[in-house]
Amino acid sequence: SFEPLMRRTVVASAVGATPKEDLMKASVYEMDQGMMISSASAIGTKLKVAAHIGNFDSLGVDLVALCVNDIAARGAETLFFHDHISIEKLDAHQVMQLVKGVSDGCVEAGCRLLDAGVAELPGVFAPGGFDFVGFAVGMAEKGKL
Question: What is the pLDDT of residues 57-102, one digit of tens each?
């Protein structure tokens, strides 16, 4: 279990924040002003399908939905989203399709896209390979989860 390693990262500056176990991949922190929820996800095998057909525009919407749905299932509202693309060789058109999909997903979910990071990593991925991950944060009133 990673729990002991996670528990040792709780710091005093996170006023009133205490980690709670969550079986739905969304971390929950209780604070004075409410409950903060987070969720991280990756697209996975859909990347290979998209690469095979040469269409990447729906992957971003899917990535946002994976995270936002985890947060909504806990009874919270998603506030913002971050995505990160690690890619073997930058293809500006492909990356723009991915980020446009994230932007579309954020508009649909009613949250803000705060960051869209890209890292070109030659030699790390096979030619044409990449990874696409996202992270969302939401809030709920105390007692609403």
Answer: 899 999 999 999 999 998 899 999 999 999 999 999 999 999 999 9
For the stretch 24-43, pLDDT in tens is 345 777 777 788 889 999 99
Structure tokens at 8: 């040792």
C-alpha–C-alpha distance, residues 45 and 94, integer Å: 17
Q: Are 101 and 57 in contact (CB under 8 A)?
A: yes
Residue 19's CB is within 10 A of a number of other CB atoms, namely 15
Most distant CA atoms of the chain, gap in Å: 49
CB under 8 Å to 131, separation ≥6 — which residues?
42, 47, 85, 86, 87, 125
